[in-house]
Amino acid sequence: MAEWSDGYWWSRDGLRLHYRDYAGPSDKPPVICLAGLTRNARDFSGIADHLAGRWRVIAIDLRGRGESAYATDAMSYVPLTYLHDIEALLTTANIGRFVTIGTSLGGIISLLLAAAEPGRLAGAVINDVGPTIDEAGLARIRSYVGRQPAFPTWLHAARAIAEVHGPAFPGYQLEDWLVMAKRLCRLTGAGRIVYDYDAKIAEPFRIPNGEAGFDMWSTLDRLRDVPALLIRGALSDILSRPTAARMTERLPAMELVTVPNVGHAPSLDEPECVEAIDRLLARVA
Description:
The chain is α/β, with parallel strands linked by helices. It has helices at about 45-50, 80-90, 105-115, 135-145, 155-165, 175-185, 200-205, 215-220, 240-250, 270-285; strands at about 5-10, 15-20, 30-35, 55-60, 100-105, 120-125, 150, 185, 195, 230-235, 255-260.
C-alpha cells in the first residue's frame, strides 16, 4: 500500500477540507481524484497505489465527506460549490495544470473544471456519468442517500451495502463487499459503523435537477482538445449506452471503455480501468 500525507485547505465559506496526497514527480501534472455523491478519498486507494511514485495523486474528500468539514448550509452541497472548493485547492496548493479522475458526481465536477479552468486540464477520466443521467439510476440513489443506519460490525455493514448495491456488482463476494464497506463507512467513537458523509447532502439532490442543475453537453465540448477517457459499467443505470455513444461521437478522441458485469460505478480497480487510465496518462505525459 502506497503511503500518503494528509493535506488540508480552506473553502471560500470557511470549511476545512481534506485530501490524501500521494507523492509523485513534480514535472508531471498531479492527478486529482473526485469521488461520487456518498463517497470519499478512500475510493481511490487502489488506483492511487498503482499510480503513486510515477504520478502525484491527490484524492479529495469533498465537503461533508470523510475528513472534510460538514457544511452548515445543506444547499452548499451542489456541484458549483464543489467547483469553487476545488478552485480554492488549486490556488492554495499552487497547482497549474492537472488531470482529473472523476466518478459520477466527480465526473460532473471534472466537466465544470474543464469549462472554468480552460487550458489547465491536462487530461480527464470520466467514470460512469454523462451530460444526460438516466432517471432510473437517480431514483435508485434518491431511495437510499441520506439514510444513516448504524451497524455493530463491518460484516453487518458489508451485508447491508450488498443489499443496496448487489445488482450493480453481481460478481462481488463477501471480501469485495467488506472492501466497499471500509471505503464507504467509518467507525464512530461509540464503536458503531456509519456511512462517512453528512446526511444533509441528500437535500439538494432530492430537488428536481438538483444533481446537476444545468446542461452539461456544452461543458463536455471543453474536452475536445484534452486527452479524455470515458469509463462505463456495462450494467450502469446512470450512464446509458446511447449517452456514452453520443459523448464519443461528440468527442472522437475520447476513448470509451466498458467494464463487463459491473453497474454504477466501476471501482477503477478493475483491470480494464487500470489499463485504460495508464493509456490516458501516457497520452498526457
